[in-house]
Amino acid sequence: MLAASCCQHLLSAQTFELSGGTSTLYQAGGGSITVRAPSYDFTLGAGTIDGHIFEGAQLIKATTHAKYILGDDHINFYLPTDIFDSSHFLFARGVGMSTTRQQTDILAFVGATATEYSSPLFDGAKTNEPAGILFLKKTINSRWQLFSDTIISKEQTQIESLQWEPLPKLDLAVTAGVGANQPYGAASVNLSRTWIDLQAAYIGAGQQFHRVDLVSPLFAEPDRENILVTVRPSSFLTLSGAHQNYLVPQFPSTTNVRSSVDQGSAGLRVSGTLLNGAIYHSSYLDASNHAVSFSATRAFTERFHVMANYLASRPKDSAPTNSLISTFTEAFTARLSVNENLTISGGHTGINFGGQLLSNFATINADYQTIYVPAQNSAPFEQALILDIKLNLFGRLKLHGSSFVDATGNLRHTVDASTIVVRGQSAGASSQYESMGDAIMQGCVVDSFGRQIEGAALLVDEKLIYTNEDGCFLVREHKPRTHKLQVVPAEFLASGNWSVVSAPPIIISSLERNRIETPVVVVMLRAKAVVLTSGATVGVQPLN
Predict the structure, then answer these.
(1) Residues with Cβ < 8 Å from 183, sequence gap 6 or more?
(2) In this predicted model, what pLDDT tens digit does every residue of 126-165 receive, in sequence order?
(3) CB contact at 8 A, 325 and 309
(4) C-alpha distance from residue 164 to each of 5, 81, 168 (Å)
(5) Phi-psi bin for 120: left (phi > 0), alpha (psi -120 to 50), beta?
(6) How high is the pLDDT of residue 253?
(7) Is there a contact between 448 and 501 (Cβ–Cβ < 8 Å)?
(8) Is 216 helix (H, G, I), strand (E, B) or coil?
(9) Number of Cβ atoms within 10 Å of the Cβ of 531
């Protein structure tokens, strides 16, 4: 992906971002342009996905009492019984509005449903059937909430829900209605206590139930009995067990098939050693599999860690597999660490190397990860080298490349380049948002290694501002005042997943001769992956 961003930090704090490129993970190529301002956002994108041309556009206008949308929109389709997966949404094109009136959240949209074809490069879609959407959420009091979700289209959806919280951290919910002309009903309980977490639900749905009839996005829907229990009888012991059933759509059609996953696990910490064991049973179409994993992890010193994993798989009608994987990690400095992987499987022994390097010029991560992929019934444990490389070449030009394991166990990659250009200021100057006034508020944003973060987003009261190439900002006003300060990681122009380490809740402007600088520290999080941690670790990938 080739990306360029230019920012004009005037009173309106308007930002322009331009992106484009290619990705084998998404089989996509294309680009988009985004304009951001305090009261509106506008995005226009187009490109190809799997050889087909798609386009998308969105204008969002915010006012004091409502938000208006023109173009494409992700509409959250959450039911209170969605205790195992709350990420359901639908994609639509048209005109929409969301607001709150008398403790009722209202979302109305008129246009058409759309099949989304999304990638990191741009968001495109294909228009489907005309539709009218009305989602209501009524807060009766602190314990009771009512939900009503209506979609009028070629296939009708009308789902009503009720949620009750009789005690803190105890939620009970029921849902009933139809989705895409298929019946649906669910009841759930979600309990969280210091020593136990319990999630349980029973869902009765038509074989071809969907919340809305779309080819994409496709979601696996929980079906029949589902339960997940985690017990912590002591600080050093954790036990968990799960039984889950799904209706899994078969892309590119929307036809569902049933699948299930059973899992039991235990974690024990003894004398500085963390022991974990898990057993799996999965079924998908006519295939099934039994698998186990055992791991031991110990830090012998602050700089030397060892992890050992034993993995075994017993698929139906296929040969069994057994693997022993050991990982040795040594941190030479805070910026350099290496790991060695020793793998014994099928009578063969292999040695692999990885590590992490952090510097002003380059950030490199290389990890061998083991993933449990139920769809690969004959060999569900997939091991792959996962790379993440970032290079700061010159000026503000940055290159980034990553590799991923997709839902079928295949290795994919995405490559991007980015730059940020701030107009209307000289190099090294702080971002200045007002040219008049004797009072100044200023600060800098750095990461945990002290490196300045360009394009960091901060909210001063209701004004969104960005840091310049030195990671700093400066705002003038007529007289000294105190303002609310909030770091907004989701709006960072700098690439990566960011989290706040420390930031004051307020910022104070002062006369120029008495300048007060406000420090903010953030940290870049590693991109979410299928595995739970780095090294030879097992994670369960959904069957969709």
Answers:
(1) 204, 205, 206, 209
(2) 888 899 999 999 999 999 999 999 999 999 999 999 999 9
(3) yes
(4) 46, 11, 11
(5) alpha
(6) 61
(7) yes
(8) coil
(9) 21
